[in-house]
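lol ok so funny story. i was supposed to be doing the assay writeup but got distracted and ended up predicting the structure for this chain instead. priorities right. anyway since i did it might as well share w the group, maybe its usefull for someone
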Amino acid sequence: MSPTPPPAGPRGRRPLDAPPLGAPPLDARPLDAPPLGAPARERQPGDGFLDCACGGRHWGLFGAAGLLVLRRDPVGRPAAAILQHRAVWSHEGGTWAVPGGALQPDETPLLGALREAAEEAAIASADIVVRGDFVVDHGTWRYTTVVADVAPGRLIEPRAADAESLDVRWVTVDQVPALPLLPAFAAAWPRLLTL
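and the output, tada:
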């Protein structure tokens, strides 16, 4: 017997956000299940959702980290940032933020941020100079944004380097607030510009 399809939406169509036929409801999926629609790839030990003490569900069993690369004007103010347009299937997909993701066991936030930036945006660690970091710590889970500048004499041409990115590009600082930002990144953005 085939599974009963979910209730039809307008004009008899299934809603676009409905899980695939036969899939368990979203809240019944295991915490370590990849997001619905994610392309097949080798799972890493840190991949999975964590139910956090804050009441939210976050990606990264050991926390997560990302890299914000800034280009500065002649007086040292941030002028542009490398941002990633996140794949629609990813957690809070379709939004813009920094390249980043789940930390692996025993991986430092700095190393995790550098690895994720290389994997997702083709950013080489030799092309940046780290300035500092900003940590959102929920006790049971934390996200570290590593902030870096383009290294002197280097040119970074970011690109979408894997299926987790719809686009990766330089965005001028004044254009960033107009983008549909990942909510946590939007909240951190003003503080990140001060590092």
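Residues 1-30 have pLDDT under 50 and may be disordered. The longest helix spans residues 109-121.
back to the writeup now i swear
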